[in-house]
Amino acid sequence: MSAVTSSSSPVTVHVDLSPGFASPGGLTSPLAAASGSLLETVAAYLDHGRSLEAAARTLFVHPNTVRYRLRKVADVTGWDALDARESYVLQTAIALGRLDGVDPRSP
């Protein structure tokens, strides 16, 4: 855990560097290994501004299928993509995974 304090404001930011986030693909690896298209679904959902309908159109599935897969993502990772703050964690993990070479669109 590291803390950063800004001199212009009294806000302290704590950054959690737990083992799951120590490596760029730490959070995306369980999604890539899980059955189904969980990583592809959460990436599409986040890439389309957290829109279930837009993600469903991109993936050629029903919005309820996207909802179901996002619940499975929460079961696998412990992070709920439907929650704004938790989806930011997932979005950051996916971005780091992409930098590490994990592409959500590849099988």
Largest sheet: 2 strands, antiparallel
> What's the CATH first level?
Mainly Alpha
Secondary structural class: mainly alpha
Q: What is the C-alpha radius of gyration, as a whole number of Å? A: 15 Å
The CATH homology group name: PucR C-terminal helix-turn-helix domain
State the distance separating the first and last CA atoms.
34 Å
Question: What's the helix count?
Answer: 6
Q: Indicate the proportion of strand residues.
A: 5-15%
H/E series: EEHHHHHH
| Total count of strands | 2
Q: What is the helix content?
A: 55-70%
- Largest beta sheet: strand ordering: 1-2
- The low-pLDDT segments are 1-6, 9-24
Number of domains: 1
CATH topology: Arc Repressor Mutant, subunit A
User: Could you tell me the mean pLDDT?
Assistant: 77
Give a description of the structure.
Helix content is 55%, strand content 7%. By secondary structure, the protein is mostly helical. The chain has a single domain, classed as Arc Repressor Mutant, subunit A, CATH 1.10.10.2840. Strands 1-2 form a two-stranded antiparallel sheet. Strand 1 and strand 2 form a beta hairpin. The chain is globular and about 30 Å long. The N terminus is likely disordered.
What are the SSEs and their pairings?
Layout: E1 2-5, E2 12-15, H1 19-22, H2 28-33, H3 38-47, H4 52-59, H5 63-77, H6 84-99
Helix pairs in contact: 3-4, 3-5, 3-6, 4-5
